[in-house]
Amino acid sequence: MAGKSTKHIYPNADVRILVDDAYFDVHRFLLSRKSEYFRTLFNGPWSPPFPSCPSPPTFDFNTTDGTASDSQTNPLPTVTPGLTTAEEFILFLDFAYAFMTTPFQVKIGNLLRAETVAVKLQVEELDSLCRSTSFNKHGNRITWKNVEEFLKAATDHEPRLEAVRRHCELFLHSTDPKQKWTRALYLGEKYALELIVKNAAERVPCDPGPFWNDPYFQQLSATLRAEVAISRLKKTGFEDLFCVC
After folding, report:
1. What percent of the chain has pLDDT over 70?
2. pTM (whole model) above 0.70
3. If phi over 0 gives left and psi between -120 and 50 gives alpha, with beta otherwise, what is residue 20?
4. Contacts of 188 (CB under 8 A, 6+ apart)
5. How many Cα neighbours within 13 Å face the side chain of 26?
6. How far apart are CA 216 and CA 27, in angstroms?
7. Residue among 172, 177, 50 nearest 117 (CA)
8. pLDDT > 60? residue 139
9. In sequence order, which residues have a C-beta less than 8 Å from that of residue 149 and are 6 or more positions away?
């Protein structure tokens, strides 16, 4: 049996949404106002937001097929969309009910999830917010502290996140080779950044210093480590290479 969510249970709610193992007592009007998915779900006619979207269950708001929430005498009609995870739905409700708390912000860590919610539930306003957070015009916000977070968010190669991935690649490519070059190679190989991996030899500075025990270097593939070693060899000569070893 599903349990009550710790968030988004409202005493004057008029619908219960069941997602995974949690239920949310919320307002049809607000969900319809924010999401085209819920607007067509509640008011019809139904049209799927994307080809693989499952059809919603049929229900009649003139009847009550749910169980009463703790704060209500009358039971609520219950809907099980089967479209999002509980985490995704909570993010959507955080966005929809933001006017009651603080302005909703798309953060680096939840960018991919927010994009997923915007697509699945057809939330145009959230989609615009995600696009503005994708740094199409603000690539300079990427730093060594957050570059991997951005790359993780873009791992699934969502088309709308490709700009984020590209900015990360350009950031790693344009940094001074003497600064964290082994980490740049590690991220380039881990996230398949062609610009970084193809130019691996160029990433090795003329005086790289001892790097054989560098934790990022150790995580490179044998092929890339060999390429780095050959580049070092060409730049410093056999004697210096063997001294480092």
Report:
1. 69
2. no
3. left
4. 169, 172, 195, 196, 197, 200
5. 26
6. 50
7. 50
8. no
9. 108, 109
